[in-house]
Structure formats: C-alpha cells, structure tokens
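Morning, I've got a small favour to ask if you have a moment. You're getting the sequence in one-letter code plus the fold written as tokens. Thanks so much in advance, here it is:

===
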Amino acid sequence: MLSAEKSTIGKPNQFKIYLLWGIASALAVYFSYFIISNADSPNHGFASYYTSAKLLSEGEDVSQFYDNDWFSSKVKNFVPEVYDVYRFNFPTMTLLLLPLSNFSYSSAKIIWTIFNLLTLFFAIGYLIREVNFTKIWLSLILILIFSFQPLYANFLCGQAYVLIFCLLVLAWYAYKNDKNLLLGFVIGLIFIFKSISFIFFIFFLIQKKWKSLLGAVLTSLSIAVLTLPWIGIDAWYAYAENFFNDFTHPSLSVTAYQTIHSFFQHFTIFNHQWNPTPIINLPILGKILSTLSIFIVLVYSSLKAHQSEKSDLAFGAFVVAGLIISPVSIDYHYTIIILPIFILLKQVLKNQSRIVLAALILFTGLIAAYIPYTSLKVTTGWLALFAYPKLYGAVGLWGLLMLYTSKQNVSQTGNNQIR
C-alpha cells in the first residue's frame, strides 16, 4: 500500500497545517448545518423516489409513472410544493425507497439522509485508509469532501448518488481483491436501480471478467423478474416506449446536463423553449460531433482497459466515461467521481509530479466548485463555452487516467519482456 508520508509534494510548515485543519473543521460544521437544515425539505428527486415507492405500495399501475402529467399530479398529493416526473428511470427504481413508504415524506427523507451520511463516511474512510494520507493531505481531502458541490446537491434533493458512490467503492474493493462474483453483484444492483453502471458491462467484456459479467446480468435479471408480480411487464413496455423520446428530448440541451451530448446539442440545435440561442442551427452536425466524441471516449477507454490485466486507473476511467457519455448527468451524478479522484491522487503522490498534481487540482476544482453554469448570463451564444465546468473537469480527469493507464501498460509490458 502506498504511504503518502513518502511524498515530497508540498511540505508546509505547522502554521499552514493548522490553518488547513481549521478550514476543514469550519467546512465540516457548515456541511453538518446544511444537512440538518435540509434533512426534511421538499425537493425534486426524493419526491419522485418517495412518490413512486408510495404508489407501488398502494398497488398503483407502474406503467402510468411514465405519463408525466399523471405522475406529477401524484407527487403533489405527497409533496405539494414540488413538480417532479419519473422519466429516465427503470421501473425497478420504485423499489429504492419501498422500505420507507409507510413513513411520512419528512420522516422518510430524514431516515434516507442519515442512511446516506453513514454510508458516505464509511466509503470515504475506506478510501482514506487505502491511500494512507499524511495529516496535510488528509486535511486537504476533508476540505474537498466538505466543499464538494455535487454532495450538497445530493443531500438537498435526497438523491441516490451517495449510495451509488458507496456501492462503486465496494465494487472497486471487489475488483482490487479479485472478488469477481461480488463485483458483478454490486454492478448489477447499481444497474437495476440506476442504469449509470451500464458501462461496466462493457468493461467486464473487455477484461474478460466472465464471472463478474454473469453476476451482473443475473443480479439485474433476477431482481427484474422477481419483482414482476408487483411492477408488471407493462411498466417495462412503457419504459421502452418512452426511452427514445426521453433520451433525445430537446430539454437535454440545457447546461444543467454536464454531458458530451448536452455540450454539442446546446451549440448546434435551436429549440424555442429549451435552447433559443445556439451558435449555429445545424442539428446533424451536433449529432455527428456528439456521437463521434462518445465513440472516441468509449473506444479509447476500452483499448486501455484491454491492455491492462487489472488496473485501478482503468476502473476509474470507466466511472468517468459513464458519466460524460450519459446524456442525463446532472450535478448530483458527479458525486461518484470522488472515487476516480482518489485513484488518481494515489498515482500522483506515487509519481511525484507537480504538473499532474496541478492539473488534478484544476479539474477537481471545476467539478467541486459552486459555479453558476445554469445562469442565463453564461448560457447564450459563445458564452455557453463557460457553462460546462463539470464536463471539462471530468474530461480532464479522464485524460489523466488515460495518461497514467498508458504509462502503467508500458511498464507492465517492459516487466513482462524482462521476465
């Protein structure tokens, strides 16, 4: 295990260490205040989770959930202040909050918040132990965690991506320790609730992890089949019927979606309601550029993963790739990128590169910072180039992961030749 004690990058004096710990402590207090203040607040996201679970427990037809008008009217029965829809989600997402469906909205959200806090601290604690940070680096990591905007968005909206992040950390643990069935089970579990782990099915194929692939497929299918008596086959038909329209909807061009798809659609496709000021109105060009960019990310990530027998860097790269090629990644989705950041930081401390460290800080900062990228001041015309900070940060992290994966593959090849 790497010890960050050996790192010579940045050896500050005691005053600076105390200052950083003071900042970390102040941010921890603010983070706690924010969590407590919003523990039972009405917000979109949790409203959808709670309503879908409540309706399922009451025997409502899940296929109706994909009718936005119908579902939003049901949301208002439980959370009158909120408009929310079910679009983009598998029918099985209704199971996520089913154990809390007998509680009131406020009580359910408080319990959900506490559960997510506990799993977050466990996952972060594991990652910190894996890298074995010095006191100075530990304080910097805590500053990052307690100022990480996607985390705040998760807890504000009662979203599921803290849990998804923790499950990905468990998947990483399984990957590192050759627990292939556990790895497949966790990825399959994530997939059936939130399809964000879809890219790891490709990862398993490329690295010939047949047990993991089989485990992921069987886990997903088993949950889908076993829940059919409650969810019904019509719900899956409704999801399939709405899939294309949802994932090509012009609303995905707004800058709230920090994705490759949104980036190119925002600049090239006019829509009176959702995107009235593109730079040019050439929809075909936008679709070509978007498809080509996604293809490059997938192919290059796959190539590097294929060249690596087992690589934390390749695993982290697929986490990032899954985020940026998905058309629906919003700020709270970016919580899961904490894992690739830790993986990269471990490599940077090992290789003692100040330039790469500076790049890592820059890219992480673009994701972590509170930047008003949905403001009308930066979403029109060429100014919209400044409206994709999280996407730029994620692409930068993906590039660093590809760089280190290439170096690792060269090193492995050299060692094999020597043997």
Q: What stands out?
A: The mean pLDDT is 92. The CA atoms of residues 63 and 238 lie 6 Å apart.
